[in-house]
Amino acid sequence: MKDLVVLKGQKAVTTSLRVADVFRKRHDNVLEAIRGLLKNKGTQQMFEESSYINPQNKQEYPMFYMNRDGYTLLAMGFNGKRALSFKLKYIEAFNEMEKFIKQRNAISIDSSLEHEKLAYKREWLIEMRKQNINKAHELRNQDVKLYLELGKVADDYQRPRMATDFRNEAIRAVSALPVGARREYSATEIGNMIGVSPIAIGKWANKLGVKRDADMSYRDHDGAWRYFPEALKVFQDNALEIQDDDLGL
Hints:
Helix content is 61%, strand content 11%.
């Protein structure tokens, strides 16, 4: 009595072959009964004609798949004590298969929702990471600015060693970036590196097309331009010309 009902697509079905075998009827008689039922248009959704290969003569013969309603309608004409027992077993088998289908669909829906949740969580983490990196940049830039200002104060008091220490701290702050973050520089930082004013850096960023290239620069929330290492290289390659222009030569 195993495999009375099988899964076909998303439906629980049985076959005319299995019905004939279980109820000990000739398959051609079962086919004749089904074709008789199919004369009524209301039954056409209950049966699906197919075929099978006879393992003995390797010939192809007709058969039918049927859903619960088709089976119920067909089995109504089967009488006898054994027939009743088989009908009950079939009903139980249909119930079990339909329960399995519902559980599988529920798991599929839950998995889909879980994937959506994971995708949303991933996007949220990416956004939070961006915000954290931006915040780290801002804090680092504030540190750099503070150390550079302290360096100037030390110069004013003629404390060259202290000024050097402050500027070294500024360099270390520039290097302190989150893992995976791109290093970026302010116009002041680049100006200090090549010995020109921040205004000169802004002017030449326009002249060299740096501000028009998103891979080399961007404007932060405060409206200040930030430059990536690719931009720094462009400034360094043109340092002499920028220096001469800044000096008015």
